[in-house]
Write a structure and sequence with these properties.
315 residues, alpha/beta, TIM Barrel, 8-stranded parallel sheet, two-stranded antiparallel sheet, 10 helices, 10 strands
Length: 315
């Protein structure tokens, strides 16, 4: 099944549905990537901090070696982690991801979060009291170093993840290479209507991560809202002979957003792709939009003392 694509300002085509790889356990991701490519996925979303780019790379290599895909057939995204924001560390971080993934360029590379953590080998640097240690590095300096990686051919497109509207504008104001993509949490309990409109007005393609509400996030509590269990979605899913997950993915696609559900189960990987043979009505889209609480699953409240924590702003 061919997945529709959107064109980025560079001319690159980015498939509107991709495989997310966050929270996949060691040993699961290689097979998930292979299953996804066999099912027709041509977009894989990665990040250095997920700790599994070597496994993603093994899955890609298997499919390159089998001749199922060539490098230019697949769109690969990765992200720079918070400890690598210093301009001197940026190219090295890019090259670490390239090595892990076994490729010589990335189609898209994002600043994962606007906050800079203390430089060094520790991914989650904390002081003696267990408080995260920040570093004074403007994300605009990180952006300029990423632009140099575009000029060198290591990166085809660059963008932002988890940035608010003011932070996006700050990057646009200094950018020689404009950000092409914004990736943020987005599902009906957090419909991101204002941020989506802002991003689209600025010419950014909007990618929705955790489109199913990230029920398996490590810090989930039993009392947290769960979009997958919302009883109002079941009748809509039943009407189309689809799952609740497929309705959620379809809702994202119909809003002109790119959706990157994560799964390691081959049957579910295939099912998540099977959303292009039905369309929600305008009325159903409005109903699902109305679920907005808003509820943010990936809040990173433990670093909300940092000035660049993005959720200080309304959107």
């Amino acid at each position: 099944m061919a997945v529709p694509s959107v064109q980025l300002p560079s001319g690159a085509k980015m498939p509107v549905l991709g495989l997310g790889t966050w929270k996949s356990k060691p040993g699961e991701v290689t097979e998930a990537v292979k299953a996804a490519i066999d099912a027709g996925y041509r977009h894989i979303d990665c990040a250095f901090v997920y700790g599994n780019e070597n496994e993603v790379g093994a899955g890609l290599k298997a499919k390159f070696d089998e001749g199922v895909i060539k490098r230019e057939d697949i769109f690969i995204t990765s992200k720079i982690w918070n400890t690598f924001h210093h301009p001197d560390d940026v190219e090295g971080a890019v090259r670490k991801s390239l090595t892990g993934l076994g490729v010589d360029y990335l189609d898209l590379y994002l600043i994962h979060w606007p906050m800079a953590y203390k430089r060094g080998p520790e991914m989650f640097p904390k002081d003696a009291d267990g408080k995260f240690i920040r570093e004074e590095i403007p994300f605009t300096d990180t952006w300029k170093a990423l632009e140099a990686c575009v000029e060198d051919g290591l990166l085809k497109n660059i963008g932002l993840s988890n940035f608010n509207s003011k932070q996006i504008q700050a990057v646009i104001d200094i950018a020689k290479v404009k950000p092409s993509v914004l990736q943020v949490e987005c599902h009906p309990y957090l419909n991101q209507k204002q941020l989506l409109q802002f991003a689209q007005e600025k010419g950014l393609v909007f990618t929705a991560y955790s489109p199913l509400g990230s029920p398996d996030r490590p810090w989930a509590k039993p009392e947290d809202p769960s979009i997958m269990e919302d009883p109002k979605l079941k009748p809509i899913a039943d009407k189309y002979g689809k799952s609740v997950a497929q309705v959620l993915i379809r809702w994202g696609v119909q809003r002109d957003t790119i959706v990157i559900p994560k799964s390691v189960t081959p049957a579910r990987i295939r099912q998540n792709l099977d959303v292009f043979d039905f369309a929600l009505t305008d009325e159903e889209m409005v109903v699902i939009d109305g679920f907005n609480i808003p509820y943010r699953a990936c809040h990173l409240d433990w670093v909300n003392f940092m000035p660049d924590w993005p959720f200080h702003e309304p959107f």
